Please model this.
Amino acid sequence: MSIMDTDVQVSLITQPYTLRQLTTYFLRLGATGFGGPPALVGYMHRDLVQQNQWISEEDYREGLALAQLAPGPLAAQLGIYLGYVHYGILGATLTGLAFVLPSFLMVVALGWAYVYFGGLPWMQAAFYGVGSAVIGIIAIGTYRLTVKTVGREPLLWVLGGLSAVATVLTESELLWLVLLSGVVVWLVKAPPVGLRLGGLSPFLLAVFPAVDSPLWQLALFFAKAGAFVFGSGLAIVPFLYGGVVKEYGWLTEQQFLDAVAVAMLTPGPVVITVGFIGYLVAGFPGACVAALATFLPCYLFTILPAPYFKKYGKRPDIKAFVDGVTVAAVGAIAGAVIVLGKRQLTDWPAVVLALLAFGLLYRYKKLPELSLIGAAAVAGLLLRYM
Model:
């Protein structure tokens, strides 16, 4: 059953459960939940609402709406909110940590292996295949997200198209364009009677003195990524590319594609790729700083407005702003597919692998992405040694 199915009854009676049970569930989901944000939020609905009946349909929908409204990774924010429902800040903190920790440890281990074995032909060959398949996976995800988000509204198509073109031309996500899209849709769909700022929660990002340590630069950059990037986990890809490759030069383009591939190889939130990137830049401390700086804003953006969201979350002006921001984020993802594809798909075997991944996922919607990733890794190895 779809998580958005309006036929689901909201009168499900929640059953008692302990915080330990909920934390254990999210620890297991973080260790075994593949498929990105759409799959993860679907697992939460199936397990917590339908099967165990720990969370009511109404609480789940409110959490999903808040996660879509606030910047940051969708699945992680929903998990944090569901922990908050019955156990407050402690529940939100424990479920968030349990959900992120398994995949963080996995990407750190892969980061170590990547650095240690990075020069070996077999690892390069495996990532060649995986990187090509990832382009197809991101492309089909972007296609589905665009169809679902933009629909048939001309204004949304225009704003999404502008964001896509801007991302291709600048090879980075323009934050001002994303926010401007939100304002435009807000003014068109729900024009304010007067200047009302009560529905939005402005915040200031602290500016630290410039220091030479890469850890400070990592903290500031990834804090911006967590605080300003809207949409699903894939929405952070163009923002990260513009920073870690174009602006700071921390990673090469191939290393960045490998980082995205690692995120697809591991369960849990796609955004956990920041841990892999941080490890490549500054070792284990860099991985910790990058992950903490990315997830801390989304944690705060979930627990701080949670008590008030039920009262203000249905306001037309806020919904309109979110529509504009979301469509711009989708456009940026579409542009990122083109940018990354130009770098990764440099020969016919890579193009074929990407098209196969796209075509298989288009034809078989329930095909596990992990199986494609594994097959692509094997294909890369065979192509290398053939």
